[in-house]
Design brief:
Length: about 180
Amino acid sequence: ASTLFGQDITVSIDASGGVMINNANVVIADIQTLNGVVHVLDAVILPPNATVADVVINSDVHNTLEGAVIAADLAVALSDLSANYTVFAPTDAAFAALDPAVLTILTNNVDTKLRNALLYHVLGAEVLSSDLADGQTATTLFGQDITVSIDASGGVMINNANVVIADIQTLNGVVHV
């Protein structure tokens, strides 16, 4: 099966009916939700050699971000296995909703404004969704704080942006979409 990351996972079923996803056992299956189903695993599955840069570059919904990361010369830094990052990755739809004048300013000033805007989406440490608290602030690599909001239903916002996919684990951190 193909994941949202764009990589395939392998599902195997043994003779006793045990199910594995890659090398992780499904310990609880078929938890129904309003928008899908959850299968609980006993291990974290990682794509081979995936870094936060790989998640952005290989995603079908981050083409604009991919171009921006490459243009701002951040792909190598975000591939650094000795670093640890949290990336809040805006989708193509998020960029499309941006005021065109702002997008023009960013793309006309790649080394300054675009780079700074991208660094405002990165923390210099791995922060999983379970580490977040309502009202929490964190300082980005741009040097400015972001604020976490968690609503009554558990929905997470970073400043005014909704986290739609959390905890994409990589070898050098985590990505939240």
